[in-house]
Amino acid sequence: MSSISNKIDKIIPKSIKENIRDYGMYIALAVIILIFNYLTQGLFLTPRVISDLFNMTGYIAVLAVGMTLIIVIRHIDLSVGFIAGFLGALAAILSSRFGLPIWLIIPIVMSAGAIIGMGNGFIVANLGVPAFVVTLAGMLVFRGALIRITKSQTIFTGNDAFNAIGNGYIPDIANIDGVHLLTIIFGIIGIVLFTYFEARNRQKQLAYSLKVSTMPLFIAKILFVSTVIMYFVWKLASFRGLSWTVLIVALVVGIYHFITKHTTLGRHIYAVGGNPEAAELSGISVKFTTHIVFASMTMLAALSGILFTARLQSASPTAGTLFELDAIAAAYVGGVSASGGVGKVTGSIIGALVMASLTKGMDLMVVGVSYQYMIKGLILVAAVVFDVRTRNMKSKRI
Amino acid sequence: MSGTVLRHIHYMPEGVVFMAKNILEMRNITKEFPGVRALDQVNFQVQEGEIHGLVGENGAGKSTLIKILGGVHSYGKYSGDIVLGEQIQKFSGISASEKQGISIIYQELALIPEMSVYENIFLGHEIERNGIVNWNETRIRAIDMLKKVKLDVHPNTKIVDLGVGKQQLIEIAKALSKEVKLLILDEPTAALNNDDSENLLQLLKELKLHGVTCILISHKLKEVISVADTVTVLRDGKTVHTMKKELSEINERDIIKHMVGREIEDVFPKRSNKNFGEVQLEVKNWTAFDKKLGRNVVQDVDFNVRSGEIVGIAGLMGAGRTEFAHSIFGNFKGYQLSGDIQIQGEKVNMKSPRNAIKNGLAYVSEDRKGNGLILETDVKQNITLANLKQISSAKIINKNEEIKVAEKFRKSLRIKTPSIEQKVKNLSGGNQQKVAIAKWLFSEPNILILDEPTRGIDVGAKQEIYTIMNNLVSQGLCVIMISSELPEVLGMSDRVYVMAEGKMIGQLPIGEATQEKIMSMATV
Fold this sequence. Notes:
The structure holds two protein chains of two kinds.
Chain A: H1 2-18, H2 20-39, H3 47-72, H4 80-96, H5 102-125, H6 131-150, E1 155-156, H7 160-167, E2 175-176, E3 179-180, H8 181-207, H9 215-238, H10 244-262, H11 264-274, H12 276-281, H13 286-312, E4 314-315, H14 323-333, H15 345-364, H16 369-394
Helix pairs in contact in A: 2-15, 3-9, 3-10, 3-13, 3-14, 3-15, 4-5, 4-6, 4-13, 5-6, 5-13, 7-13, 8-9, 10-11, 11-13, 14-15, 14-16, 15-16
Chain B: E1 9-11, E2 17-19, E3 22-33, E4 36-47, E5 51-55, H1 62-69, E6 79-84, E7 87-89, H2 94-99, E8 102-105, H3 117-121, E9 128-129, E10 132-133, H4 135-148, H5 164-177, E11 182-186, H6 194-209, E12 213-217, H7 221-227, E13 230-235, E14 238-244, H8 252-260, E15 279-290, E16 295-306, E17 310-315, H9 321-328, E18 335-343, E19 346-348, H10 353-358, E20 361-364, H11 368-372, H12 379-384, E21 392-393, E22 396-397, H13 399-412, H14 429-442, E23 447-451, H15 459-474, E24 478-482, H16 486-492, E25 495-500, E26 503-509, H17 515-522
């Protein structure tokens, strides 16, 4: 008996230790939220604040998703902030001046983004110019383009459907006591899917006699995650429900998570990031992969621009300023490694939420903007220190 | 060990009694790396004012010995004593060693290409006061140093604009500027042409007259013989022999005998039925011009391999073997290629590794950490990387398939890992190599190129890899094995090519190949 309990003792800390980098950010996010909730006497965890927190993270979150892959392949993209601003303005013009519907504007603007990204990718991969320089140049170019296209004035979208993407909420089928039913249903679907995939995954690993967590631990994990999801879904539902922004971000994260985890393209991206020479020798085209990643980044910048424009209901000549740095920070906080080949899309979303929580929490506490910047800077460094330390810890040989 | 007896008094030709004293004595040096004993009780003495040749096969321990002397492996990381000027030295690092007048010039030159000659000569020990560099003084002193090494270049010239031969001289000038007492050169002529080599050796002789003691590590035995007063042979981490010029002990035949003198242990599993088929790969007039180096790294190579055959490519480091492998594998950034490749009699054009893989080639790199494996990724993903198509449909990877494939190879190649989800960086060298081989076997090649397949792995794992190779050829694959370990070449190959300076010097059927023959072909 004692040997079994010994075993469990051994397994639990080990599996936690091995995954500390994955769990670390979730724990940090939870701690930050709880601290702010305490300091604001429960204000932080009210439905309105939670809903707002998610919505304000949206346009940075999509950028962070793209930036994750850029950093994974050991590059950087500084141009995406103003590209988001520029393409957001383009979207506003297409809406206000040409009266195009939003479902047409999104694909047009995102395609435009992808094309710009291919240009970046071409200069980086084929002409061998460092991405830092290429995208720094792009930042200047699109800053100018943004001022040009807006003629230094604010452009209103003049379209409610457009603005709903940034401010609106999904419609409801029935509202019970002020609780958004469809949101709750979505939440339940999410939990069911999560449980299903986790169980299937575990089954598979068992079938191949890989080591898995013990059954009680597994159930505890499912219960815990479900509770957390349901908690936030409940908060959203008791405000106005799920916003279009959150839905879009969830969709983007879902797609990118799938691509990075389950497709050959995803595998190629991580291989190129992990060791470009080895990838090339394995028959992977480093150039092609670089093109794709840059195109995807700028395509997401377009989406970010649309979300931001919709949120403000207008495009401004300064939109997009410093977005790229927020996205980079989110990615690093989320555990992406600067040395390439390591980093998860979901991690970066958590990173974005950490940064947004800090902003939101300190706003609620009426902390001055100057301190906010300093604190966020320190958190960024702390996160990367944590990342580097835990990686060294794990690199012990067997 | 009788050869290590030193005569402390001997007569100079002029008849002057000269008390030759040891400038350096390394006593009972032992250095272990995980799993390997690189140096085993090495004793090594260098007399003041001599040129001392240090020779041995790749992996004999020369570099390790020099790194200990240079403070790269600092005090405490080895056992034994370094005695310099009658004092036991405990070098804490490179600078501690340099302070004692030891200067090492490594094969990879430590010059900053974009800086000028004079900046480089005084790099790290600038002529300065309160942190402000006196550039005029620096330039004047640099001109002095350049005169000493008989190099006629302007001190303002950038290193990048100089040839390798001249760069080598700059390195020596740099050492002289540090008032070097003991100058150590690691394969200084490996990348030089004949004239430059001759020039360099001449310079060493002149420096000797000025009291600079020199340790020369070289594969080129003829050079060593032409300048060395004493030659020490290392083999398998031990000093096996020391020879003196004044006793006329130094000759090539004896050096080679001592270098390779080990008995070939029975680590090479026998292959019972050898069955050679058609020529699978034929390379003709193959030349690769490296634009960066400005010379042919591979020149006029003719080469072929038949199915069911293991062909060894022997040669020394820098002979162009890896470059040859990369160039036929389609990985030739910066190379200008000419010549023909035929696969099964048909001419093909290897545009990229992707293309080469499609044509049935696989290349297990000699540098598994540098460009062979993705260390941060797990075993299964490394194994499937070169042939993801096989386990995916519509570009979506079937992870069940992936696990099956990885498990299959784990069992068949006996890869020791707690699970196939272990990161490759956590495996031992031998197991990493097996993962690299598994990766390329999964790409189902016809022709497998193994570049230094057993470098840095222990004997047990070596033997397993040899067994894998034998199994593969008995299934009709071709194996091309590039190796610097002669016993391995002789023990495994059916035919041996010898490369030197980018050229195929010749080929030997295995019956005729001996270590001595290969060595003398490789050390032109």
